[in-house]
Amino acid sequence: MSALADNGAREEIIITLFDLFRRGGYDAVSIADISEATGLGKSSLYYHFPGGKPDMAEAVADFARGYMREKMFAPLGAQGPLARKIAVMMKTVATMYEGGGAPCLIASMMISPTASPKAVKTVKAIIADWIDALAGALRADGLSSAAAKRRATAAVIAIQGALVVARAAGEKQIFSAALKAAEKDLIDQRRE
Q: CA 174, CA 132: separation in Å to the nearest integer?
């Protein structure tokens, strides 16, 4: 297998693992489940992830962090009006969570007592990175550091909390309404 084909295959496996872990939870997903979803035997899985399931969790966490950096954090740090930055963030969030229908990898990994400590550390960092990137966009628009941090934290809590409630209630509109409210709060009430 060439190195290019090997990297492409590994990336496809990671995307499948991402979906498995966030929908099923790290602990509930077995190697047999992974084998069935990827179409790979155990030896092929261990070829790509020699450390087994903990290596898989670490790769998934790194993938998720990279995705968030590219699709959300970089646009929040770009030049331009705050409203456009926040709109990009909200669109990314809506897409990532399928409008409130898909679970959050962070929640799925954080509740696992057996997940790799490195993977848990990475998923924790995603939340910190998100708050920091959003606070940076708010500061760039003139908000004080303390106020920007408070608003960014409140927005992330509102989004993540709405996802849990929308999924529990089976009502995606709860999530979309929360995104609109958070967007309005971030844009309309920037000054403190």
A: 25
CB atoms within 10 A of CB 72: 23
DSSP conformation class of 40: -
Share of the chain above pLDDT 70, in %: 94
Tokens describing residue 52: 């087994």
- CATH number of this structure's domain 3-188, picked from the four choices 3.40.50.2300, 1.10.1740.10, 3.90.870.40, 1.10.357.10: 1.10.357.10
Q: If you search the block for the tokens 């997940």, which residue do you land on?
A: 115
**102-143 pLDDT tens trace:** 988 888 877 778 778 899 899 899 999 999 999 999 999 999
Per residue in 67-100, pLDDT tens? Answer: 999 999 999 999 999 999 999 999 999 999 999 9
From CA 132, how far away is CA 73, in angstroms rounded?
A: 9
DSSP 28: T
68 contacts 126 by C-beta, under 8 angstroms: yes
Angle at 102 between CA 8 and CA 187, to 5 degrees: 100
Structure tokens at 35: 């084998």
Q: At what angle do helices 53-68 and 3-24 cross, to 10 degrees?
A: 90
Please report which confidence band the pLDDT of residue 172 belongs to, taking 50, 70 and 90 as the band edges: very high
